[in-house]
Amino acid sequence: MLFNKSSNLNDSVFGKSITPIQLAMIEEEQAYLKTSQLDKVFRLMTSNQFAISMTSMTAKGDMENVGEGGAYPMTSQQEGFKKAIYNDDEWKLAMPITETMVEDAELFDPVSFAKDFMLPYVRTREKFGSALFSGANAASTVFGGKAYDTTGADAVALFSTAHPSKTGKAANQSNYFNAAFSYDNLLAIEEYMQKITDDNGNLMNIQPDTIIIPNNARIKKIVFDAVYTTSGRPDTANNSANINADRWNIVIWNQLQNQAGATGDMWFLADSKRNQLDGALYVDRTPLTVRDWKDNNSGNLVFGGRARYTAGFNNWRALAGCYPGIGGTTL
User: Fold this and answer.
1) How far apart (Å, rounded) are the C-alpha atoms in residues 205 and 208?
2) Which of 169, 239, 275, 320 has the least CB density, counted as fewest CB within 10 Å?
3) Are the C-beta atoms of residues 202 and 169 closer than 8 Å to each other?
4) CB of 213 within 8 A of CB of 219?
5) 2-57+82-322 is classed CATH 3.90.1690
6) Mind listing the pLDDT tens digit for each residue in 191-229?
7) What gap in Å lies between CA 281 and CA 158, rounded to an integer?
């Protein structure tokens, strides 16, 4: 957060309130960020460009046995799918503080107002990321009345049953499933992800390690039972080893909401390392900048906050989405 102090009101009734208000905003932002899950789901980036372009290269061929002293075989490679994420969004909010509030409340109300002012900023960032991520089983999703692109670089929805091959050398692949969370389905989706291939049909060595779920008690119990029961199958008399035990990170995202028509809780798997390379991207162009001014008509001190950020998706391979009752590949 950046502060641009422009009011020159140190000698007025507002002078004593400006610094405490700024500190209250900083404290509220830091408190919320401790519970934010954006950095667990998105790669957080900064850019001063109108758009960022993401691309990749198709995989090289395998090595060949050429015999003793044989020539080096040449391998072919081409540019993969390309994705441009446009950062043309501008987010603003303003908060007035009256002279009466400062005079009568001895800073209690102005400081409370300041904290309430910060909540929409940090909350909107979280809700925006959640809306795009959970709505990425379609080519676009609407947030705040605007449609946002939720396709990956291959021009289909991030979560799709038909991700194409750039080279045409591999069959369409799915990372979108109609499956409620269960011990068996967790293993099945993990296997699907581990068998994801590149555009030439070669295994990609995807290693899912993170489960992302909404903050609903029913799915939290099932997930924690499946992952943290060290021996035996959860809720059964089966004494076989639990091969899921202690292998997963669990992200509980409070802002993640089920879509209408869902018959169960949405849940997602991620290869966190690969996702941080080129999967889900959250791009800050301008950090929250707060400035203050005095309104000539009302005499109020006004704090205005402005930020520019957006989000988007590039490579689908690091993520899998499960939408029970909504759609996707049936296991």
Assistant:
1) 10
2) 239
3) no
4) yes
5) yes
6) 999 999 998 898 889 999 999 999 999 999 999 999 887
7) 12
